[in-house]
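REVIEWER CHECKLIST
Item 1: Sequence provided? yes
Item 2: Single chain? yes
Item 3: Sequence as submitted:
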Amino acid sequence: MTEDRPASANSDDPAAPWYREGLSFNCTQCGNCCTGGPGAVWVSDAEIEAIAAHLGENPLGFRTLHTRQIGGRRSLLEHANGDCVYLSPATRRCQIYEARPVQCRVWPFWPELLETPEAWQAASRRCPGIGRGDVIPLEAVEVAAAKMALK
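Item 4: Structure as written out by the authors:
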């Protein structure tokens, strides 16, 4: 795995984030981000409609059968082990990849993973796409993180 470039020593902005030169990432569709302990994959009404359409299901039926209410929001269901129900056990591929929710689309640019280089590095041990591929510029990383912060 290649390492992300360290922040430039000549940066004039001390308030710039540690990833000011961007971060390398290329999704390998390994499914690792779809597994793990229980959690939530937040879905909006528009995302529910898009996923239902992708699966050829009725949005209301999809909402009832494939999501759960957590507080004032909806989340996709998961298996007892925390795996997303749309992660195929046979192929370890996302069955709704083309219609996946924003939370999934912006992985790994989640605010908590961008807090420190150590948090990013810890995520890279689980995600083989972190540190590989093209450098995603700072602006694109921040747009993705902002989308997640709105969830």
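Item 5: Key structural point noted by reviewer: The beta strands are 23-25, 42-43, 67-70, 73-76, 130-136.
Item 6: Recommendation: ____
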